[in-house]
Specification:
Layout (H helix, E strand, L loop, with lengths): L1 H58 L3 H24 L3 H29 L3 H78 L2 E2 L15 E2 L6 H64 L5 H28 L7 E3 L1 H18 L2 E6 L5 E5 L1 H17 L5 E12 L9 E9 L7 H4 L17 H11 L3 E6 L6 E8 L1 E2 L1
Parallel strand pairs: 4-6
Antiparallel strand pairs: 1-2, 3-5, 5-10, 6-7, 7-9, 8-9
Amino acid sequence: MLLGLAVLMGAVFLIIAHTYNLQKTTEYHIESARVSVTEAKEMENELKAIKGLTYTYIVNKSSVWLDSLEHHDSNFIIHLERARLRANTQEEKLLIQQVSALFSNYEQNILIAIERDKNNDRTTANALLLHSAQDLLGTIQRKSNEFIKINQQTEEELEREQSITNSVISKILISLGIGGIVVGLLFGWLISRLLFGPINQLVLTVRGASGETVLEKLRLSSGNELSEIGDRVKELIAKINKANEDLSKNKELLQYSNKYAALGKIAPTIAHEIRNPLAAIKMLVYSIGEDNSVSESVKDDLNIISSEIVRMENFTKDFLRFAKPADPVFTQVNPTIALSEVIHLLKPRFKKSNIILIENTPKLTYSVLADSGQLKQIFLNIILNAIDAMPNGGTLTINAEITTALNPVLNDTAKEFMRIDIQDSGNGIPLAILNNLFEPFIKGSDQGVGIGLSISQSIANSHGGWIAAENSSLLSGAVFKVFLPTIMD
């Protein structure tokens, strides 16, 4: 009888698990399609900004526009990498590959145009810029629209499948509910007959389960049928006592989490109230600047205003990204490859800022489970801060090695990590902010608003790692150490 009931209950649980898995799988694919659409739309937004800045640079060769263009290029590459990881079908992967190739051509054209402009060949430079804005960026935008359309169609099909699945699940649950009542009554009767007597012999006294109070020792009868239960309950009591001891240590972490949860709730409202007026101001400034009757001194002032508007727009984007960071998409990647791509992207900045790069990142046969785009964001934030710390030029040294360390966030056993050191030759981190450097709105310079390092630390923590910062003991400058748990290839 009991064997039959066990088989029946097992079948019931298998049906429930299967239907639940169906729902979760469909919901995952729907969410994946939505995220892909979101990333593609972010790519479109960055493309619009890049296109506008390219046209602006044709008529105004100010370095302010180049700085803004580099920033939007970086954002576009991050969203492109995320879209690449989300691509499921061969068609999507082909579209992303084409977009990546077209954007690489665009970047090369921009570099060539800048060089031609320096050589006073403005006709060729402007022709390249115009071709890049009209043809290359236009084609990229069409490919992005195709990517969005594919994922929207996929989302609609999955939602129809989910509706059918929900209908089937509802019928199954009704049947299981009726059968469960019958089985429950029968099973309850059997349990009352078989276990009611032995359970009455088990006595467990718990005093003051709250606060720091510990549980009393377990007192059991000498019956052999309960000896195994008694051992398990003793183990449970020991775990509860240990949990009570650790509770006070977690109070500070809870307060920290509550602060950031509140920040996440108000972030969209703040960003909305700032971004909408900024957009209107930006359009008016651009319109005034296009007027030929405006004097050069006024145009210079308008350029300064436009630069400040771009800075505030970047702040609101970073603020939103800090308050509500995107969920990472984990794959097996080599962090040194992501680091090399960021270094390649920033080479023009190194040259412009008179910074010498010393890169000691050997080809390590180690990988980590990580979101490649988010790793690039960590490296980009730290290296850009290093560039800002050396306004008169200097040396940027990057090292990578495998080390054994204890994670200060998880406080578990020592593990193997890949450690990437990024050291600048600036003035170092002020001692007043060194201990709170990774908290939001803590700044080491007059540039930015101080949330880039907070975002980077949050990303590193979500990957099972962390970032440490210190001033160099031998040379001037600061050292940022990024720790990521390794997987042996």
